[in-house]
Amino acid sequence: MSLDQYLHTLRTEFGYQSQPRPRFFLNYLPGSLSLAYYIRLLYILFHASFPARRNSLDNAKWAMYSYRVLRVVESVGGNVNISGLRSAAAHQGPVVYIGNHMSLAETLILPGIALAFGRVNFVIKEELRHYPVFGPIFKALGMIAVSRKNPREDFKVVLREGHKFISNGGSVIIFPQATRSVEFDVQAFNSLGVKLASRAGVPVIPVAIKTDFHGNGKWIKDMGPINPQKTLYFKFGTALPVSGKSREIHQQVVDFISQSLTAGGGKVKKNSEVGVRKGE
Fold first, then answer.
1. Is the dihedral of CA 191, 192, 197, 203 positive or negative?
2. pLDDT of 168-183, one tens digit each?
3. Mean pLDDT score, 13-26
4. CA 14/CA 86 separation, integer angstroms
């Protein structure tokens, strides 16, 4: 399948499902799949850094590299399941995509999905802009960077830069939690995405993400072991207008992600109340 066919599938079938692939001998050698995965992944990112350094990394190339990452996942036996895009396809105009954050995989694959429906920007950790290979790519794409150290300042940055991007016709992807985790912690999931949507006057689309295929590493968090037995799920919900109902919409986003992850075998840490903390 080509990139154009992939994007057409997302727009018209509102999802994507990996096709069965033959198992190779690497599947039976301990650590070999992870090694093959990271060699191929780093090759793609290294290749993407060249147009980034020349300031020629546009949305079309970003979508292409994102799709190539998906294909790398499939090349080592990974199964990708994308669903629920009917609302994203039907909506005219910008939205704020709000999802849980599990691994590096969604940072690389999710933008390519959203780009099928228009321009998009991403809220990332500031430290990613200084990584040797990632840094030039994220800087060239003009991603919204937050420190994760000062919630009040991060709040201001996201509202200012996110609103500016949305005002120019683009959508924003945000993971409103402090750190990646294979467990969805309801209490740690703040309402920043909903507040951005409320200020910009656009709806939110919740995204339930399960990417524990790509593990978090002990020494390098972004490079943990992979497990091709675990399917990568990206489930999108219905566009939800905010318009003065921030708390209610935030709860609906949390409920959608919690229920979707539970149905897909994910882990959810539930609390008596959803965390909408001061300054978030």
1. negative
2. 999 999 998 767 788 8
3. 78
4. 5
